[in-house]
Every structure is written in structure tokens, then in C-alpha cells.
Amino acid sequence: MSKRRSNATRVFRKAKSFPAWYVDEFEIPSSKNKYVLFYYASNMGEIEHPQYVHFCVVSNDNNRYVIKGMQIKHKASAESEALWLPQIHSYTSHFLQRYSERFLHNEKLSANEIAGMYFLRNPQPLLISINEEINRNFQKYGEFNNGVRVDDGFCFAQTGIFCEKDIDKNKAADGMLIVYRTFLNLLDMSDAQREAINKVCLESIKRCKEEF
Predict the structure, then answer these.
(1) Distance between CA 15 and CA 159 in Å, rounded?
(2) How far apart are CA 121 and CA 152, in angstroms?
(3) How far apart are CA 142 and CA 155, in angstroms?
(4) What is the pLDDT of residues 171-207, one digit of tens each?
(5) Does an H or E element contain 192, and which?
(6) Source organism's superkingdom (predicted)?
């Protein structure tokens, strides 16, 4: 990692203006999966120790997905113990395109630069439920239709939990998948939608504090 960071540092030392960023890409031959390190220096003071995020790029037929792994605490029921649950956050090309158009407003960025900017600016996504005040057509997307509140706006997503039954016949989650479909700038949403999102977010945060 330090060797790869030194490549970014050399680029930043030559930068004529800030912020500056550097994309380091490499591929695993056996899987053909691509991994990306995104380095970012907001000013000269971050040249030697830039901010960075990492993610994976997976191609399936003609579809391209950006993958980010995370962990959250999860309870199978109100009475069960809270356990760390692995999460896979999968971002479609459409989502990243909309994020660039509706928030970054920079047509010159590559797909990996857009993803790097997104992860750097939105490190803590908050998964919430969707209701008709947020999206009046939410029911047609099924029970796994959710929203994700991030610093830069609001994401519409679909979720799935991988489970196996334990000896007590209770469902124990093994992992969670979140597929991000599209991004909305909060400024493009109505006052009623923003209020509904804030209300659900506060309820989710309160519930997490009580349970964990």
C-alpha cells in the first residue's frame, strides 16, 4: 500500500492546483476483477498523506458494477444478539452517472473518478425504509425497495439478505446485498419529500441507539 501511495504522492507534488486526485488501478488475473485505489489531496498539506478509498469493479456481460464492502451490526429479532453483518454495496453505472450529473456537475470525470469521489464524500450510508411520502409509487418496486441517505443526497436501492436457519429455526443473516439504482440531489426533491426522509432517518437513528 505504501508503494502505491508513493505514486500518488509524486503526482501531487507536481500538481499545479488543488484539489487533486490520482486513480491507481490493478487487476487480479485469476478473477479478472479490477481493484481501484482513489487518492485525493484537497490542499498542499495532504500531499504526503492523501485521503484514499478503495473499491472493486466487476463486469457481468454488458453491465458494470462498482462494489464496496462494509459491515454493520444486525439483529435477526428484537431478542437476539447483535452481530456484525457483512454487506456488499453494489453501484450500477446508471447510479454513478446520475450522481455525476445531479451533484458533481463535471462531465470530464471517468467512471472510476466518479466512484472515488462518491465514496470519499459519503463514507457512512444510512439505510432507511421507503414510504409513499418519499416516493408515491414505492409499492410497485416490491418489499425490498429501500432508500439510503448519504451526505450528498438520497439513493434509491434494492436490498436482499442472505440467510440460513439455525438450530432454533430462527433466521440468522449471513450477509446483505444493497444494489444502488439511482441518485437524487435533495435540492431536486420537494419539501415534503425532504421532510419525510429526515423523519425516517431520525426514527432509524433512534432505533439503532436503543437496540445497539
Answers:
(1) 41
(2) 7
(3) 16
(4) 566 788 999 999 999 999 999 999 999 999 999 888 7
(5) helix 191-211
(6) Bacteria
Q: 198: which strand partners?
A: none
Q: What is the mean pLDDT of the chain?
A: 87
Among 204, 14, 36, residue whose Cα is nearest residue 116: 36
E-assigned strand segments in 75-198: 83-92, 126-129, 145-150, 153-165, 171-184
Is 60 exceeded by the pLDDT of residue 169? no
* CA-derived radius of gyration, the chain: 19
Burial class (CB in 10 A: 0-12, 13-18, 19+), 152: middle
Instruction: Decide: helix, strand or coil at residue 35.
Output: strand
- Is residue 211 a contact partner of residue 82, using CB atoms and an 8 Å limit? yes
How many Å apart are CA 95 and CA 77, to the nearest integer?
32
Residue 42 CB neighbours (<10 A): 13
Selection from 129, 96, 133, 98 nearest residue 113 by Cα: 96
Rounded CA-CA distance 156/125 in Å is: 12
Please state the domain extents for the chain: 61-211
User: How many CB atoms within 10 Å of residue 79?
Assistant: 7
C-alpha–C-alpha distance, residues 4 and 9, integer Å? 9
Give the span between the Cα atoms of 201 and 208, in whole angstroms: 11
C-alpha–C-alpha distance, residues 163 and 192, integer Å? 36
